[in-house]
Design brief:
The protein is mainly beta. The chain has one domain. It is built from no helices and five strands. 11% of the residues are buried.
Length: 81
């Protein structure tokens, strides 16, 4: 991704029971050190709009190396360390 390039894409996360017993406000999606604005949630999909500017990496990914951002999905009573 290039910084300041238009962001028209959505991040789509597929799964099972994503919306069961929780609301959009119960979820938090982080890309690197920035939040992804969640726009839709049902039992099988969660979509969010990535930040406009490319986020900084929090740490080196052991599988991808440097220069890649991790995506973290957290719901309900979770905390980031």
């Amino acid at each position: 991704m290039n910084s300041r390039s238009p962001r028209c894409q959505l991040l789509v996360i597929q799964g099972k029971n994503l919306g069961r017993g929780v609301r959009i406000s119960d979820y938090r999606v982080e890309i690197g050190n920035s939040s992804c604005n969640i726009s839709y949630l049902n039992d099988s999909l969660l979509t969010c709009r990535p930040p406009y500017d490319e986020p900084s990496s929090l740490h080196e990914d052991p599988f991808c190396g440097t220069g890649y951002n991790s995506i973290l999905v957290c719901y309900a009573a979770c905390s980031l360390v």
